[in-house]
Design brief:
By secondary structure, the chain is mainly alpha-helical. It is about 90% helix and about 0% strand.
Length: about 90
């Protein structure tokens, strides 16, 4: 598994799933179900982003070369909660 796949593509699945759910018609999933699924994805994304941000910070202190990749992953995971605030 390459670094770009592990640190960019896998975290990018959360924003992709969020925008897929947010763009589905209300008749397909229902308003409440759509909102709860989007909120769940955003919550998991926030928790994962915080964990990765802490991991990046600790890795930077230790001189870990993957610390910048963890920070990039944390930024990618920040997209769904930001979009939730904008769309709400």
């Amino acid at each position: 598994m390459t670094r770009s796949f592990r640190y960019v593509v896998l975290p990018a699945l959360a924003p992709a799933a969020f925008f897929l759910i947010a763009s589905t018609p209300v008749e397909m999933l229902g308003c409440v179900n759509r909102g709860l699924m989007a909120l769940g994805i955003a919550t998991v994304s926030v928790i994962g982003g915080l964990i990765l941000a802490v991991k990046s910070r600790l890795g930077r202190k230790r001189g870990d070369p993957d610390a910048a990749w963890w920070a990039l992953s944390a930024l990618i995971l920040a997209i769904p909660p930001a979009a939730l605030l904008v769309l709400a």
